[in-house]
């Protein structure tokens, strides 16, 4: 078996295994458990922890090492919802069903929040609040969204006017914003490590460097083949994301791998606080940028997505230029670290959570919003196995859809570039319109002034009986191609 392709990492490995503290052996002996989880990312660890807490014996098989995949790359932003715009979800499954899914995502946030305390995960560095900013002048759309999120789905949200957004983020690139005061951020890597430690304490056995090579479904107890041993389990959870491979090629084919690069800048000093006064995470509505301040004066920033793996080092320049375009006042920004991870994007944009066939479960396709959604997947699947709870069926409408293979990747990359360009062009136009609006306002003010000068001059003329063909210079200017006087 060819091991899954490695996540490209530049510089010091941001998720180097702490082998001294966490010596996870390979599986070298045959083992019998209630539940076998394939993949030790956020999804696999979440299911394993929940299932062990419910009393099951659990083994996790990890082809590389814990957090090797996308989970070791996150920016640590925990938001409500899924990767699909809420309006699209409502259109597809209706308001009531969307509302139930939305509530689940908030339950996922609460699970993460309860786990990630300074006591349980020292150094987790919690910050609160998230700002979703628009690259274009939204106006009515913003009000609609606020109504849906706040009134219909009971989410704590606040609409910010342009001035307030720009007061916090000193760039003219952004217009309105939606503030999520209950969203929060944490150190993503520490969270994965913390989850791993919690799972271990709950009795989960984690085997690293142990790829699952295939599954034999015959018999009540299924058998999972690994290079050196076999494992038997009543239930199996496929949580291998885009690298799952042989255990279920069909499932792997439903995910479009999207590589996302991230950078951590060198300390930027006080100039950063002058540019960005918001302490939580910032993302634009087009999904172009997602960033936040960490460690007081550094930026953590995710860059563009590609459907083919690109060394993160090669994307550093692009991200630097993006930072400079938004915040030129920061001057030259040095990058301390860059890395990337492959997220699994489904065709419908929703995660794959549920039972595929008796005893075979899936937890994958979490896209860009994996922290809260993997937490809820863990809970739903564990409760489904242990108690027969059927809440996972809320994800039934989102079936496994083939992602298009290699052609899908090429098309996906094209769409991503086009969407990115479209978003940037829309932003450019919006800023142009804004500048045009300012120019027009100044013109109006000049006109008002000219008109009032004309009026007062007219009054004066009436009093002094001036000749009719003499006019105020300002009023003449106003007649030269400017709109008529505003009364
Ligand atoms: C740069 C970046 C920033 C992000 N920021 C955020 C953020 O701020 N907030 C947020 O919510 N989400 C974020 N995400 C998304 C989030 O990271 C993912 O949704 C989430 O980590 C997916 O977790 P997973 O467990 O499904 O997959 P992975 O983390 O990819 O885990 C899958 C694991 O399965 C293993 N595996 C695969 N096949 C096998 C096999 N056959 N046998 C054994 N093991 C196998 C792999 O080695 C891997 O370790 C970000 C992603 C990236 C890339």
Automatic annotation (TrEMBL):
GO terms for molecular function: oxidoreductase activity. It comes from the Bacteria. The keyword Oxidoreductase applies. Residues 461-487 have a biased composition (Basic and acidic residues). Residues 449-487 are annotated as: Disordered. Residues 34-383 form the FAD dependent oxidoreductase domain. GO terms for cellular component: cytoplasm. Coiled coil: none annotated. Keywords: Oxidoreductase. Gene3D superfamilies: D-Amino Acid Oxidase, subunit A, domain 2, FAD/NAD(P)-binding domain. The keyword Acetylation does not apply. PANTHER family: FAD DEPENDENT OXIDOREDUCTASE DOMAIN-CONTAINING PROTEIN (PTHR13847:SF281), SARCOSINE DEHYDROGENASE-RELATED (PTHR13847). This is FAD dependent oxidoreductase. It comes from Rhodopseudomonas palustris (strain HaA2).
């Amino acid at each position: 078996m060819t091991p899954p392709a490695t996540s490209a990492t530049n510089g010091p490995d941001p998720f180097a295994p702490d082998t001294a503290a966490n010596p996870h052996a390979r599986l070298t002996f045959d083992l019998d458990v209630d539940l076998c989880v394939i993949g030790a990312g956020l999804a696999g660890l979440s299911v394993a922890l929940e299932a062990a807490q419910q009393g099951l014996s659990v083994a996790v098989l990890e082809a590389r090492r814990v957090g090797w995949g996308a989970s070791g790359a996150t920016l640590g932003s925990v938001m409500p919802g899924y990767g699909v715009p809420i309006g699209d979800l409502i259109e597809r499954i209706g308001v009531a069903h969307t509302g139930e899914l939305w509530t689940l995502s908030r339950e996922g946030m609460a699970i993460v929040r309860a786990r990630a305390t300074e006591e349980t995960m020292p150094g987790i560095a919690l910050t609160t609040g998230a700002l979703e900013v628009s690259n274009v002048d939204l106006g009515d759309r913003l009000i609609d969204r606020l109504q849906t999120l706040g009134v219909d789905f009971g989410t704590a949200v606040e609409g910010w006017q342009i001035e307030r957004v720009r007061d916090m983020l000193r760039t003219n690139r952004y217009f309105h914003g939606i503030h999520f005061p209950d969203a929060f951020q944490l150190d993503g890597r520490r969270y994965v490590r913390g989850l791993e430690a919690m799972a271990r304490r709950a009795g989960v056995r984690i085997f690293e460097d142990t790829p699952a090579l295939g599954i034999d479904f015959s018999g009540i107890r299924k058998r999972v083949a690994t290079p050196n041993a076999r494992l038997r389990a009543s239930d199996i959870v496929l949580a291998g994301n885009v690298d799952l491979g042989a255990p279920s090629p069909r499932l792997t084919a439903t995910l479009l791998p999207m590589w996302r690069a991230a950078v951590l800048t060198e300390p930027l000093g006080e100039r950063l606080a002058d540019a960005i006064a918001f302490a939580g995470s910032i993302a634009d509505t087009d999904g172009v940028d997602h960033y936040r301040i960490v460690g007081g004066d550094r930026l953590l920033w995710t860059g563009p997505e590609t459907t083919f793996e690109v060394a993160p080092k090669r994307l550093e320049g692009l991200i630097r230029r993006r930072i400079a375009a938004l915040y030129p006042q920061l001057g030259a920004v040095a990058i301390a670290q860059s890395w990337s991870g492959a997220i699994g994007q489904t065709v419908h944009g929703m995660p794959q959570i549920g039972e595929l066939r008796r005893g075979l479960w899936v937890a994958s396709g979490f896209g860009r919003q994996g922290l809260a959604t993997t937490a809820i997947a863990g809970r739903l699947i564990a409760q489904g196995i242990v108690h027969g709870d059927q809440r996972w069926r809320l994800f039934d409408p989102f079936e496994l859809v083939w992602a298009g293979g290699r052609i899908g990747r090429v098309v996906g990359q094209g769409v991503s570039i086009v969407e990115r360009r479209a978003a940037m062009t829309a932003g450019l136009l919006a800023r142009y319109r804004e500048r045009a609006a300012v120019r027009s306002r100044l013109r109006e003010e000049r006109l008002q002034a000219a008109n009032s000068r004309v009026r007062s001059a007219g009054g004066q003329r009436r009093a002094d009986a001036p000749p009719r063909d003499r006019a105020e210079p300002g009023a003449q200017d106003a007649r030269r191609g400017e709109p008529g006087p505003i009364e």
